[in-house]
Amino acid sequence: QVQLVESGGGLVQPGGSLRLSCAASVSIFRIDYMAWYRQAPGQQRELVAGITTGGSTNYAESVKGRFTISKDGAKNTVSLEMNSLKPEDTAVYYCYANRYSGSWGQGTQVTVSS
């Protein structure tokens, strides 16, 4: 299994920005697919954005044009740049990695509120 550690969550005002990072315990080039999911209170966990080994990305419709997923091989991290944040983006954000089987990070809280 891959160990994942997220960082970068916090409190931000509507319209603000945050950058989440996920550090993996193995080379990200050995991981087929990495993604960010989120789960708001009382709701199911949902896919926010994903990226393949080859760099192809996919996004939830609700975040297209506002969020960007990227990876840094030198730092062994996958990041999620979040701009124009809305209150409905408030959730616990989880990093996910698929290498033979799925692995999850512990989650980081993002709160968008004035």
Q: Can you walk through the features of this model?
A:
Helices cover about 0% and strands about 55% of the residues. It is mainly β and about 110 residues long. Strands 2, 4, 5, 6, 9, 10 and 11 form a 7-stranded mixed beta sheet that branches. Strands 1-3-8-7 form a 4-stranded antiparallel beta sheet, with no helix packed on it. The radius of gyration is 13 Å and the shape is globular.
Summarize the structure.
With 114 residues, the chain is mainly β. It is 0% helix and 54% strand.
Quote the distance from N terminus to C terminus.
Answer: 39 Å
Note the beta-strand portion.
Answer: over 45%
Query: Can you count the beta strands?
Result: 11
Provide the succession of SSEs: EEEEEEEEEEE
Basic shape: globular
| Mean pLDDT over all positions | 96
How can the largest sheet be summarized? 7 strands, mixed
By DSSP (H or I, 4+ residues per run), the number of helices equals 0
Overall helicity: under 10%
Poorly predicted spans: none
Structural category: mainly beta
Estimated radius of gyration: 13 Å
